[in-house]
Input
Amino acid sequence: MTTFDIVDARFVAAAHKPAELPPPIGIEIAFAGRSNVGKSSLLNRLTGRKSLARTSSTPGCTRGIMFFEARARDGLELRLVDLPGYGYAQRSKQERQLWADLIENYLLERPTLTSVVVLVDVRRGLEAEEHDLLKLLEDRGSRSRQVSPVIVATKLDRVPSSQRRAALAAIGRSGPRVIGFSTELPETTEAVWHGLRKAIA
Ligand SMILES: Nc1nc2c(ncn2[C@@H]2O[C@H](COP(=O)(O)OP(=O)(O)OP(=O)(O)O)[C@@H](O)[C@H]2O)c(=O)[nH]1
Ligand SMILES: [Mg+2]
Output
């Protein structure tokens, strides 16, 4: 049996404001990162569902915090939480502020949040926004339950295979270990699942 053995996955709720957040139940893993980095695509691969989470080549696809529930064959039940991407300039300043507040509040206060997957494009690596995000997660530890960050470098297929190892090592140099992922490389899904299982253990 592989860890990537999801027998059931379904949509639970969409929250566009704090009042719409579903009651905190179970274990939550959130997916955070720049708009268009591939959060929703990764979530679909992890659940083995083609279009559970909406994806698009146009940045700003995921609007609001989307909650999904997944159950593995070995009984593990998880909530996978798809966050709207940051760094998307096409929105009004007011809209961006409201979203930042919603996401920041979720990341800092959610009692069921156990791990946050920080996604970065393998070609860009960690930039100021990702360092801010990792710092915010560290700060959370002093207020409520600690969350373990997992860094996933996406779109690995866009780097020639001979350069992948070096690209991942370069991103990992300044912090936690980095897991490479691509929707085009099926074996990488299993690697992400391994990282997630470890992070919530
Ligand atoms: N080549 C390649 N393209 C990918 C990969 N992952 C995602 N994409 C593409 O990148 C685009 C954005 O993917 P999404 O999963 O919608 O990105 P997101 O991070 O959820 O974006 P927002 O919801 O806007 O924050 C889509 O066109 C995907 O098909 C990958 O591993 N390799
Ligand atoms: Mg998305």
Residues 6-200 form a domain with the Rossmann fold fold (CATH 3.40.50.300).
